[in-house]
Amino acid sequence: KVSLAWSTTGQMGFMLLECGLGLYSLAMLHLVAHSLYKAHAFLASGSGVDAFRSPNIHMNSHGFQPLRLLAALALGAMLALGIGSMFRVYWGGTPALLGVGVVLAVAVSQLVLQATAVLRPFPAAIRAGGLSALLCVAYFSLHALFERVLASSVVPVTEHVQAAYMVLVPIVGAMFLALLLVQQFLQWARSPARLRLYVHLYNGLYIDVYITRLLQSLWPAPTQKANQPQGV
Question: How much is the pTM?
Answer without folding.
Answer: 0.74
